């Protein structure tokens, strides 16, 4: 029987464009004309050829060619700007059809026989029948004339006929479900999670009329990851490689974002749900979900920022339930390019706002690539909930502190919905920290805001930002009782804290104390939204460990309960953006509804202290007014900021490397002052082991295509060539990856420390906040990160950790003025010692001074005078009695090239004494003493932790300090901690290396 002999067979080609269009896509089975098909795109020019190996001699009867381009499709012309795909909507045809071509066949790939030729091709789908069958193993298409100036593009090459025995092959659309449907998992508050047992398929392969029925056959679907995106499922099931690694994103077709996708889950009605009101809740989908239960359409979720809560009581049955969701992609996904050797940094479309509210960076940005499915999928949780007739909504908790913090007024209210048609008497109750508030009311049909009153708490436990006190959280349980039975229950938490704000620049006070907001921006939490609660807690804990106090959730890209809850636990303030960047229309349907749902959903989190209307712009007038009104009415006392980089705040970098001393010069900032600065950063190359994970099978050194793809964009804001030149100037050019990464950590540490110390030096004069661009990577990157995608830490991390110490001694690298910072709410009294050392450890000079610094304050002391030595160490120590509070070691040079003295310093000898592992619940700790037993300084000692059994890194590991400088005879104790799940062998192996050891 005649069939497609070419399906999933190997393909070779004359050339391939630098795009996600490898030749093998012409035989993958998604042969659709236009943008809905995957396919091959050649590089420019004629002729071009493509060969399919049928992997056996076959009898060939006909061909079907499917070109992306059809009759009349024009040449695509990029806009001549730094963002060449800015105006694309996703409908653009980026290739040409072949007008003149011929097809040849061969049995040995040496001697070819022509079986078809034409000069009258028209593109789209072309069917070619042979007069009589031919025998061949190889089929070659040769195209000599194109329909326009775009490169040749072919979305399908089908070869029909019959064959004998050939090797079995499969492709990325050959899906098989495991058939496993796990039992439902009971959740809190009378819920059942629906986060497993899903199956997934593409719209082209689904019969909508059948799939909503219980007996639908989903054996040719794939198992779906929920929460997760379509692409996450395809990666998890092995159909595509992980796009965060190497050049894998070039092996995943853009066509994923041009299709709708069906999710299906069958399940029994949970025990205890019969006879109650049943709700289906969706916490987040992308972009638009149409929802069916048991064949009945129950509603839509229109965008990724609103929840869906549907009363499905009338459609549930006593038997098996069938839930089906059609996930529709963005209507305007753009036609992005990919970062490459041209140095371009912005591959993305600027027209995604046409689908707002949405993820505006998902077609790429200068810190991430285009996500090929544009995030389509059920990216957040799905659950069933059982209630009575009264249903609780999102609580509002408003806390007010007395000036002396001895009492706190806690006011709680909650919307309660009466789902019936007649008035309903209920009792609403809130319980927290041994306190109960209750109110009996009669609810009219619909939703009523029920104020439970105000409780005055004596000696309350307060929520403090990181470093200023304990971020104490009070568990809150809300219940509503109707007709003598509990109708609904919700468990959450809140923090007792007061907020106050000053302007020009913005200054945030928590519990009466001015907080130096230091931290970083987050874009996407993860490229494919793969962010389980454990990883989320890990990365926010890394921010806490860096002594950060704030994360900016850039254009709301990381909104999810796990993010805010982790920030609550770790004392990290949140500046939360809405979803506006660049040119943006006013009065977008549903935009303010999404904003209202977002604010009420997350307002109980004490970490949220700023809502911002737009990135580097102000929202259009009506939108701005609407957002301000929503925040003012729904999140009492929290600041609304229209613009992320104007008015009482500033931004705009610099985003590239500068000499460390320049950070202390306000002239390099766009407002010529320090202020509340929302974006600053530079490239940050991680350690070599992470870089090897980044490059995968690609060439790691010298810097080339895989680096460019991973944000090493020489024409972008990051300007990595300046960063590389700084490394080379200081320590010499590198011969390999390991050497370069090792040298990079000097620049990472030095510049990151200098950024924050520049703001420390001007604290409260006009400096109130500094946020890195960026502190968290969404994928394997070479720029703008404080730790890497693997969650290993490097010089960037420890430069930030050092400069952001709650109690810190520093010297400004422009003047060597010594200052002490007290980022706590207590008084600091102590003494400072400044010692200058040679590289053999000899003392060259010493200075001392007593110091007293008030809460959230700074004290300037003395200047460290220059020394004739071209390269030496300046060591500062802050003591509180005999207790060392802060130690800060600078390598000071007259010219950057003087650092090359480290290359000829000679080898240090470093010994270690590793203590036993201590158990602290589910965490493990050990202390290692590191000693320099040599005769010269040991430079930038890096401590690591590996699994002795597997010889893999234990990630993340938290270190009390790292990248140490030890004088001859000196030792340091460093404490390491990790989670037991990250070292299941319980066999830790401590590694130690220094630049010169």
Question: What do these coordinates show?
Answer:
By secondary structure, the chain is mainly beta. Helix content is 12%, strand content 36%. The protein contains 11 helices and 52 strands. The strands form 11 sheets. Strands 1, 2, 3, 4, 5, 6, 7 and 8 form an 8-stranded antiparallel beta sheet that branches. Strands 35-34-33-32-31-37-36 form a 7-stranded parallel beta sheet, covered by helices on one side. It has a 6-stranded antiparallel beta sheet with strand order 12-11-13-18-15-16, covered by helices on one side. A hairpin with a 2-residue loop joins β43 and β44. α5 runs parallel beside α6. The radius of gyration is 31 Å and the shape is globular. The N and C termini lie far apart (70 Å). The mean pLDDT is 97.
Globally, the shape reads: globular
Find the structural class using helix and strand composition. mainly beta
List the uncertain runs: none
Distance N to C terminus: 70 Å
Supply the number of helical segments: 11
Helical content class: 10-25%
Query: How would a crystallographer describe the biggest sheet?
Result: 8 strands, antiparallel
What is this entry, summarized?
This protein is mostly beta strands and 997 residues long.
């Amino acid at each position: 029987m005649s069939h497609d002999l070419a399906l999933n067979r190997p393909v070779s080609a004359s050339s391939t464009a630098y795009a996600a269009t490898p030749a093998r896509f012409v035989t993958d089975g998604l042969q659709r004309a236009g943008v809905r098909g995957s396919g091959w795109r050649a590089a420019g020019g004629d002729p071009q050829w493509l060969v399919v190996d049928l992997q056996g001699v076959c009898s060939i009867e006909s061909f079907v060619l499917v070109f992306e381009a059809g009759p009349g499709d024009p040449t695509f012309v990029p806009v001549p700007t730094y963002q060449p795909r800015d105006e694309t909507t996703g409908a653009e045809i980026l290739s040409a059809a072949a007008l003149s071509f011929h097809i040849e066949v061969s049995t040995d790939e040496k001697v070819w026989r022509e079986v078809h030729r034409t000069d009258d091709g028209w593109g789209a789908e072309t069917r070619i029948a042979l007069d009589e069958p031919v025998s061949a193993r190889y089929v070659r298409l040769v195209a000599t004339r194109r329909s326009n100036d775009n490169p040749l593009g072919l979305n399908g090459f089908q070869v029909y006929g019959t064959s004998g025995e050939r090797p079995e092959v499969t492709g990325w659309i050959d899906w098989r479900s495991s058939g496993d449907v796990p039992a439902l998992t009971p959740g809190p508050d009378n819920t059942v999670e629906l986060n497993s047992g899903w199956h997934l398929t593409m719209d082209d392969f689904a019969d909508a009329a059948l799939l909503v029925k219980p007996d639908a056959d989903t054996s040719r679907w794939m198992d779906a990851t929920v929460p997760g995106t379509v692409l996450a499922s395809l990666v998890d099931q092995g159909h595509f490689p992980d796009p965060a690694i190497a050049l894998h994103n070039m092996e995943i077709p853009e066509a994923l974002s041009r299709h709708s996708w069906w999710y299906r889950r069958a399940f029994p009605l949970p025990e205890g749900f019969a006879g109650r009101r049943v709700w289906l809740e969706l916490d987040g989908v992308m972009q638009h979900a149409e929802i069916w239960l048991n064949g009945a359409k129950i509603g839509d979720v229109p965008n990724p920022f609103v929840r869906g809560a549907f009363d499905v009581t009338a459609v549930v049955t006593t038997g098996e339930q069938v839930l089906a969701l059609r996930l529709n992609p963005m209507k305007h996904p753009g036609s992005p390019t990919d970062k490459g050797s041209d140095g371009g940094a912005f591959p993305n479309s600027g027209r995604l706002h046409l689908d707002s509210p949405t993820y505006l960076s998902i077609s790429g940005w200068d810190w991430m690539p285009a996500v090929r499915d544009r995030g389509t999928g059920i990216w957040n949780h799905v659950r069933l909930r059982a209630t009575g007739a009264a249903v609780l909504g999102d609580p509002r908790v408003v806390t007010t502190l007395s000036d002396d913090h001895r009492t706190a007024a806690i006011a709680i209210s909650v919307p309660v919905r009466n789902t019936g048609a007649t008035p309903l008497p209920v009792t609403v109750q809130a319980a927290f920290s041994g306190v109960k508030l209750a109110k009996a009311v009669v609810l009219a049909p619909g939703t009523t805001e029920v104020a439970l009153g105000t409780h005055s708490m004596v000696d309350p436990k307060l929520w403090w930002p990181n470093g200023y006190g304990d971020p104490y959280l009070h568990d809150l349980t809300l219940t509503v009782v109707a007709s003598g039975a509990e109708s609904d229950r919700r468990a959450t938490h809140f923090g007792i804290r007061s907020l106050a704000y000053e302007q020009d620049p913005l200054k945030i006070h928590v519990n009466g104390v001015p907080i130096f907001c230091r931290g970083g921006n987050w874009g996407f939490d993860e490229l494919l939204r793969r962010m389980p609660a454990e990883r989320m807690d890990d990365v926010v804990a890394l921010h806490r460990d860096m002594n950060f106090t704030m994360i900016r959730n850039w254009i709301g890209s990381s909104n999810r309960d796990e993010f805010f809850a982790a920030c609550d636990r770790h004392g990290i303030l949140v500046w939360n953006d809405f979803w506006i960047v660049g040119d943006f229309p006013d009065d977008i349907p549903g935009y303010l509804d999404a904003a209202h749902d977002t604010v009420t959903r997350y307002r109980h989190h004490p970490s949220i202290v700023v809502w911002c209307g737009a990135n580097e712009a102000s929202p259009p007038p009506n939108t701005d007014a609407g957002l301000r009104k929503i925040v003012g009415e729904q999140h009492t006392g929290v600041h609304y900021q229209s613009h992320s980089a104007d008015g009482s705040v500033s931004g705009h970098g610099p985003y590239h490397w500068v000499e460390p001393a320049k950070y202390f010069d306000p002239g390099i900032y766009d407002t010529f002052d320090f202020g509340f600065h929302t974006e600053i950063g530079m490239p940050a190359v991680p350690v070599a082991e992470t870089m090897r994970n980044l490059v995968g099978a690609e060439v790691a050194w010298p810097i080339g295509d895989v680096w460019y793809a991973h944000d090493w964009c020489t024409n972008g804001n990051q300007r990595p060539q300046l960063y590389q030149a700084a490394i080379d100037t200081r320590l010499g050019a590198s011969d390999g990856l390991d050497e370069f990464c090792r040298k990079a950590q000097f620049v990472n540490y030095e510049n990151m420390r200098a950024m924050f110390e520049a703001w420390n030096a001007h604290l409260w004069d006009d400096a109130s906040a500094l946020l890195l661009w960026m502190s968290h990577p969404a994928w394997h990157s070479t720029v703008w990160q404080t730790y890497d995608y693997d969650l290993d830490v490097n010089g960037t991390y420890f430069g930030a950790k050092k400069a952001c110490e709650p109690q810190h001694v520093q010297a400004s690298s422009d003047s060597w003025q010594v200052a002490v910072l007290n980022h706590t709410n207590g008084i600091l009294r102590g003494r400072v010692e400044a010692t200058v050392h040679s590289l053999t450890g000899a003392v060259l000079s010493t200075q001392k001074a007593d110091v007293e610094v008030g809460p959230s304050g700074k004290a300037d002391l003395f200047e460290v005078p220059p020394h004739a030595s071209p390269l030496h160490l300046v060591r500062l120590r802050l003591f509180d009695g005999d207790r060392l509070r802060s130690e800060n070691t600078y390598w000071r040079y007259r010219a950057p090239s003087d650092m090359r003295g480290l290359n000829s310093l000679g080898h240090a000898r470093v010994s270690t004494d590793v203590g036993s592992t201590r158990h602290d619940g589910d965490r493990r700790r050990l202390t290692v003493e590191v000693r320099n037993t040599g005769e010269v300084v040991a430079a930038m000692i890096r401590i690591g932790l590996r699994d002795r059994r597997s010889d893999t890194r234990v990630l993340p590991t938290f270190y009390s300090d790292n990248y140490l400088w030890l004088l001859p005879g000196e030792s340091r104790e460093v404490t390491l901690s990790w989670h037991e799940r990250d070292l299941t062998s319980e066999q830790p192996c401590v590694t130690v290396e220094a630049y010169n050891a």
